[in-house]
Amino acid sequence: DADVTQTPRNRITKTGKRIMLECSQTKGHDRMYWYRQDPGLGLRLIYYSFDVKDINKGEISDGYSVSRQAQAKFSLSLESAIPNQTALYFCATSDFTQGAGDTQYFGPGTRLTVL
Amino acid sequence: KQEVTQIPAALSVPEGENLVLNCSFTDSAIYNLQWFRQDPGKGLTSLLLIQSSQREQTSGRLNASLDKSSGRSTLYIAASQPGDSATYLCAVSGYSGGGADGLTFGKGTHLIIQP
Fold first, then answer.
1. Residues from B in contact with A at Cβ < 8 Å
2. What does residue A53 show for φ and ψ, rounded to 5 degrees?
3. What is the pLDDT of residues B1-41, one digit of tens each?
4. Are A42 and B107 within 8 A, CB to CB?
């Protein structure tokens, strides 16, 4: 089984709908992240969480919210989806150990289309 | 604001050649630098991580170097193979919570190795 899983893998929705993307990990990592990838713009950080009580905004958090339900679960919500939120969304995890570098590991991605 | 640039944007070389991918970043106050590989429609695979105190890391045919003061990193691929064809992404993290915060990515180098 994959260490970082994302559901759904593909989603098509309409403008104005509320959407939740879910991420689960079995790596036992404390830190989790959400990114989006757009052609020509690369990957950009939306939100990150160092533990269940610590959530931080990234570069492009407007229009998104997150919930860290447990150490292993980190959800991304679009309260009212708009077409320019069409993108490939990635969840990532990392295990901060002093001196070990904090490598990030990525899930397979969710392709979201907002019509 | 940290900015990451990768040169070239695309590269096509015959099988067996050694090649160098370049990455530069504007703010030298980084916690670490990671190189990733992304295959079409897939997630990101971590290749190498270099902590800010390190100069290089090696894994098999891959060698990554870091010159933090000048804001540069290179990824050297020896004896390239068709299976190396992918997009290579460079990303840096800043400091937060005693370790790394989220990653800032370059737009990638699209590499094609011709059989």
1. 31-32, 34, 36, 42-46, 49-51, 89, 91, 93, 96-108
2. -110, 5
3. 899 999 999 999 999 999 999 999 999 999 899 999 999 88
4. yes
Residue of chain B whose Cα is closest to the Cα of A103:
B49
* Gap between the Cα atoms of A74 and A112, Å rounded: 17
H/E element, A114: strand A110-114
Question: With contacts defined as CB-CB under 8 Å, which chain B residues touch A90?
Answer: 43-44
Report the distance separating Cα B2 and Cα A108, nearest Å.
26
Contact A105, A93 (CB under 8 A): yes
Please report residues of B whose CB lies closer than 8 A to that of A103. Answer: 34, 46, 49
Pick out chain A residues at pLDDT < 70.
1-2, 97-101
- CA–CA min distance B32, chain A (Å): 7
Cβ atoms of B103 and B34 within 8 Å: the answer is yes
Task: Provide the residue count of chain A.
Answer: 115
* B43, B49, B108 member nearest A103 (Cβ): B49
What is the Cα–Cα distance from A57 to A48, expressed in whole angstroms? 7
Whether pLDDT at B114 is above 90? yes
Residue % of chain A over a pLDDT of 90: 78
Residues facing B21 on adjacent strands: B75
pLDDT at A98: 60
pLDDT for the residue B101: 79
pLDDT, averaged across chain B: 93
Q: Which amino acid is at A111?
A: R
